[in-house]
């Protein structure tokens, strides 16, 4: 009663949704789960990953269980590998729940931890820690979002319609819980909320059809970053979440022809540009600003007799920016090696499956950052080509010198686009796990490389842009379409969406 009168949370009362005590520590929570499992006498036994029978799970769940838990029907067709492959058998008390195992497998596929050699800063590296914290408020949405992505990934791997439906159910739960967490306008969104939006965005990118909802969370990210204020970056987790969110925002803006956020310039100016990932963000911001100017110029070309000099000035500025960017990226941390496919294998049939030239990066994250930058430049030059085309049409029959200059600028941009497309395609073998960072072919018998899922996700945006870029060669667009089919397979897009994912 005292807690009720003071409007305080009583830490001794259980939360109905999660069946754990508020603020109890992780050790106590695990002990509680084990006691419940023992009392219910559920036969949860694990064998090695080579066992043919597979794990057994409970066939009934208690009425108070989390609605994102798997039902008996959903469990019946589930085939999970051993959670601890270094032991022959896992004691019942030590075996994780099937839901946790699904999440662990999702982490294996999509989480990257920072590299000690200073290459990758990480991707979703704080997600396991956030999900493991005992905090209840705001965590329900994150847990449902992660389980949605984990179930969707397993659904595609095991061709399970039941898991696919469960993934969509968890996606709905996550949206509902997120809406509740954001209902109070006076509450500053915490790390749980922002990470939930990041995971939902990944889920939508891979497992929902292109629609109004896809990319909508990018707008939510923008508003959440504003509400979190300037202090959000003072901490490793806060900085990581900001970096991931702003990265996604700029990609969304470039892809959907949206202008940069007004706040982005102030945010980026406060960062140390000696860090290369900060430089990438700053350059993408400058590219987006020029793209916005190019769209404005196209409208003015249609409506007014725009100055030719103004358009040509923008062309010169864009080409100068290109030169600056290609210079500063030439540093040891960003260095990569380009080899001919004959250096990978002497077998002609096998070699024919690789691009003529292949890039070897420190890891798939560095390859992604290069491709992120290259794709932004492709979009920038596509904007430029549209401006030059409009200008050429509106001044047709005028000075021959002007027409010659316009054709020259167009040809330069086309050549740059095609060169950038080749560079993106040359990263595909490493990104999809065909070879390692030294150019050694990875045997199929060793199982799917861990980088395949995240590598496919990283390639998704660049490949989508290349396969529909008119300035790319026919061969490049055909190759990009073939890569896109592989991405659909390795990420589960094809299994989840069928032909709808081929857009």
Supply database-style keywords.
mainly alpha; 503 residues; 58% helix; globular; two-stranded antiparallel sheet
Q: What coarse outline follows from CA principal-axis ratios?
A: globular
Radius of gyration: 25 Å
- Structural class of the helix and strand makeup? mainly alpha
Annotation, overall tally of beta strands:
2
In quaternary terms, these chains amount to single chain
User: Which range best describes the helical content: under 10%, 10-25%, 25-40%, 40-55%, 55-70% or over 70%?
Assistant: 55-70%
Termini separation comes to 58 Å
Which series of helices and strands comes N to C?
HHHHHHHHHHHHHEHEHHHHHH
Question: How much is the average pLDDT?
Answer: 78
Order of strands, widest sheet: 1-2
Strand content: under 5%
Low-pLDDT stretches: 1-64, 498-503
Main beta sheet: 2 strands, antiparallel
Alpha plus pi helix count: 20
Give your account of this protein's structure:
There is one protein chain. With 503 residues, the chain is mainly α. 58% of the residues lie in helices and 2% in strands. The protein has 20 helices and two strands. It has helices spanning 2-5, 26-40, 72-76, 98-110, 127-132, 139-158, 161-181, 191-207, 216-228, 236-255, 264-269, 276-303, 308-328, 348-351, 364-394, 400-425, 428-431, 451-467, 474-491, 493-497; strands at 337-340, 357-360. The protein has a two-stranded antiparallel ribbon with strand order 1-2. The longest helix is centred in the C-terminal third of the chain and has 31 residues, at 364-394. Mean pLDDT is 78; it is low at 1-64 and 498-503.
């Amino acid at each position: 009663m005292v807690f009720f009168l003071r409007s305080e949370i009583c830490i001794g009362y259980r939360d109905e949704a999660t069946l754990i005590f508020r603020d109890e520590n992780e050790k106590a929570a695990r002990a509680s789960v084990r006691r419940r499992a023992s009392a219910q006498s559920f036969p949860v036994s694990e064998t090695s990953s080579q066992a043919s029978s597979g794990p057994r799970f409970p066939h009934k769940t208690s009425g108070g269980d989390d609605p994102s838990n798997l039902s008996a029907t959903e469990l019946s067709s589930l085939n999970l590998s051993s959670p601890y492959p270094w032991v022959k058998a896992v004691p019942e008390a030590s075996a994780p729940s099937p839901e946790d195992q699904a999440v662990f497998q999702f982490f294996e596929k999509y989480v990257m931890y920072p590299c000690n050699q200073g290459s990758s800063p990480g991707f979703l590296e704080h997600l396991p820690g956030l999900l493991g914290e005992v905090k209840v408020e705001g965590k329900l949405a994150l847990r449902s979002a992660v389980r949605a992505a984990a179930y969707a990934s397993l659904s595609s791997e095991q061709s399970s319609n039941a898991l696919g439906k469960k993934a969509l159910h968890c996606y709905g739960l996550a949206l509902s819980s997120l809406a509740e967490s954001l209902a109070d306008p006076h509450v500053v969104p915490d790390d749980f909320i922002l990470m939930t939006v990041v995971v939902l965005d990944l889920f939508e990118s891979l497992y929902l059809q292109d629609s109004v909802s896809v990319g909508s969370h990018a707008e939510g990210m923008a508003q959440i970053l504003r509400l979190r204020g300037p202090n959000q970056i003072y901490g490793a987790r806060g900085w990581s979440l900001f970096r991931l969110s702003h990265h996604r925002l700029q990609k969304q803006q470039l892809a959907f022809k949206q202008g940069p956020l007004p706040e982005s310039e102030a945010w980026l100016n406060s960062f140390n540009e000696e860090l290369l990932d900060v430089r990438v963000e700053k350059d993408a911001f400058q590219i987006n600003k020029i793209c916005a100017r190019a769209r404005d110029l196209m409208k003015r070309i249609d409506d007014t007799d725009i100055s030719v000099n103004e358009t040509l000035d923008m062309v010169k500025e864009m080409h100068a920016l290109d030169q600056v960017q290609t210079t500063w990226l030439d540093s040891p941390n960003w260095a990569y090696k380009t080899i001919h496919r004959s250096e990978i294998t002497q077998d002609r049939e096998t070699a024919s499956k690789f691009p003529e030239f292949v890039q070897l990066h420190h890891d798939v994250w560095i390859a992604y950052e290069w491709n992120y930058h290259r794709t932004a430049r492709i979009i920038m030059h596509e904007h430029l080509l549209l401006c030059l085309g409009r200008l050429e049409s509106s001044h047709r029959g005028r000075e021959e010198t002007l027409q010659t200059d316009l054709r020259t600028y167009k040809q330069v941009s086309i050549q740059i686009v095609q060169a950038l497309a080749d560079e993106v395609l040359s990263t595909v073998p490493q990104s999809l796990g065909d070879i390692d960072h030294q150019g050694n072919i990875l045997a199929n018998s060793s199982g799917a490389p861990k980088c395949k899922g995240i590598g496919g996700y990283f390639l998704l945006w660049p490949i989508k842009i290349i396969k529909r870029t008119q300035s790319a060669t026919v061969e490049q667009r055909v190759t990009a379409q073939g890569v896109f089919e592989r991405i659909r397979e390795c990420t589960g897009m094809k299994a989840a969406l069928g032909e709808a994912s081929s857009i």
